[in-house]
Design a protein that fits this description.
seven-stranded mixed barrel, 6 helices, 9 strands, alpha+beta
Length: about 375
């Protein structure tokens, strides 16, 4: 990274040669002004008011405009001769806890790089001292023609410096707070706390500029000749008087749904549909851990499948009964026939035996 300033950190009697490097960069998309009639670019030229001629950069100097409009020229040599001890030095004036620095004072951020091998040792000493003390250093330095206030702190293994606004450059917030007495109920505070807990923390590295990405896509689409469709504008309810309790409750439910948390409420069902309700079939066994809807569905399916089987079973039972009845009848008929035949045989054999006995008796008496 290219340095924008070379100097030294004054730490008591210790001097640490350093280079100043920008710690941030601007990713904003910049536009040019054009003439709507023909698309020609509009350029700003520096013209002298007296002779109305364009002036080049080498011919332009500094001046201070007095109250009556008089211009008082000030040269770089005039500024260089000022008795400014911080012209090339970041002078540490105090070490304070970080929470004593008002974030409203925060300005540009820089990295301080050790300038050369001899600077490594004192640079490391100051870095480790800041780490162990859990404090930040307040310093004064001069940059771009003015003296500034800065705060030094440790970022990873590097000393970073934040430019600070002077305390008298911070405006008092007069007339900014809401007028009148506003009462906040405990229920509203409880819902606000619940919303804060639900939203939780965020990985700062995951945040990005959605608007810049949308502008880049717009430029790419127009450059390729594609038709750009207007985006649907979402109504955020800005400027409307709303039911604060309802808004907080809906915000908590929406935050839970976006994070995939359970117990977000019945209204969290996708597409706003109501959940299907099925009767739960009572069983004597222990629950299997499956949902009641799945159990009911399986029971209904099994019942449907078993219906034709039951009909077949009834038919088989009826057929069996008929077959059994037929067999019974056949057995009865066979038994009767057998009995009659046996009786006839007994009768027939009995008559023959009688006839033979009578004949024998007649022969004996003769």
């Amino acid at each position: 990274m290219r340095s924008i300033w070379n100097g030294a950190i004054s730490f008591g009697l210790v001097s640490i040669p350093i280079k100043l490097v920008n710690a941030t960069e601007n990713h904003s998309i910049h536009f040019r002004q054009i003439h709507l009639a023909d698309g020609g670019r509009i350029r700003h030229r520096k013209v002298c008011e007296l002779d109305e001629e364009e002036v080049q950069g080498g011919e332009i100097g500094k001046a201070y405009e007095d109250a009556d409009g008089t211009m008082i020229p000030i040269t770089d040599e005039d500024l260089a001769q000022l008795p400014l001890p911080t012209a090339k030095t970041i002078e540490i004036v105090a070490f304070v806890p970080a929470d004593q620095i008002d974030p409203l004072q925060m300005d540009a951020a820089y990295y301080l790089s050790a300038n050369g091998v001899p600077a490594a040792k004192p640079y490391t000493l100051l870095r480790e001292a800041l780490k162990r003390s859990n404090k930040v250093a307040v310093a004064k330095y001069a940059l771009r023609g003015r003296e500034r206030l800065g705060m030094l702190r440790v970022v990873d293994d590097v000393i970073a410096m934040h430019g600070l606004l002077w305390p008298d450059e911070i405006r008092a917030p007069e007339g900014v707070a809401p007028d009148g007495d506003v009462t906040v109920r405990d229920a509203e505070l409880d819902l606000a706390d619940a919303l804060m807990d639900t939203l939780g923390e965020v990985d700062m590295d995951s945040l990005h500029d959605d608007y810049r990405e949308a502008v880049e896509e717009l430029i790419a689409a127009k450059a390729s000749g594609e038709t750009v469709r207007p985006a649907e504008s979402g109504d955020t309810g800005g400027g409307k008087v709303i039911d604060l309790i309802a808004a907080l409750e809906n915000s908590v439910q929406a935050a839970k749904k976006s994070r995939g948390e359970e117990g977000a409420g019945a209204e969290d069902k996708s597409d706003g549909e109501m959940a299907d309700v099925h009767p739960i079939k009572k069983t004597s066994g222990k629950p299997t851990g499956k949902s009641s809807a799945q159990t009911t569905k399986k029971s209904t399916t099994a019942a449907k499948k078993s219906t034709p089987k039951s009909t077949g079973a009834k038919k088989s039972t009826s057929t069996t009964k008929k077959a059994t009845g037929s067999r019974s009848t056949a057995k009865k008929t066979t038994t009767k026939t057998t009995t009659k035949t046996a009786a006839k045989k007994q009768t027939s054999s009995g008559g023959t035996g009688t006839k033979k006995t009578a004949s024998s008796r007649k022969r004996a008496s003769a």
